[in-house]
Hints:
The chain has about 220 residues and is mostly beta strands. The protein is built from no helices and 21 strands. Strands 1-18-17-16-15 form a five-stranded mixed beta sheet, with no helix packed on it. It has a four-stranded antiparallel beta sheet with strand order 2-21-20-19, with no helix packed on it. Strand 7 and strand 8 form a beta hairpin.
Amino acid sequence: MSSNDDTTRHVPTRAAEIVREYGPFDGAERIHGVTHDGQRVWAATEANVLAFDPDSGQVVRRLDCAAHAGTAFDGTHLYQIAETRIDKIDPATGAVVASIPAPGNGGDSGLTWAEGSLWVGQYRDRKIHQIDPATGAIVRTIESNRFVTGVTWVDGELWHATWDGDDNELRRIDPDNGAVLERLELPHGIGVSGLESDGADLFYCGGGSSGKVRAVRRPKSATR
């Protein structure tokens, strides 16, 4: 544990339970962002965005679009970080219907949709920005003390992934002040390049250069 993690020493910590692995997928050397549309898991692979059935693991769609980092779904459209911008994509056709500047100007990582906003992880800046999906304007910023990759909201809980060497984790943080509330430690050497909840009991985690997506059990909370 690095020195900047001193404030997390007494935070509830448990081992992450990986319940399933998907991939590697043909033609996809890396997995970046991931999202879930209620039925399928979407994964960004640099050259395209693919969708797979989480029951069978079979790829059911591919969209030919740039996909370099986080992915999100607002109930109708996909949002995809592509270099220094965020593209709004029609998932039925793959057409880009709008674009906004990404807040990190190329240093962006995770992406998720919640409460009418996009939430964007800033990897090396160790921040999460809430942004206006129409303009890209930053509404507010939450600080972390670890590198931020994937970001997701579920049941009012804000979670983000860290990838900093070989010891990585999923963290639930206080959305008001960024304080770490809960930690899921991943097996040594497994990183997370993207993160999304299925809205229930699972997190889907992009596996970077492994080319895999991993399903991790979401821990039970006091309210579930």
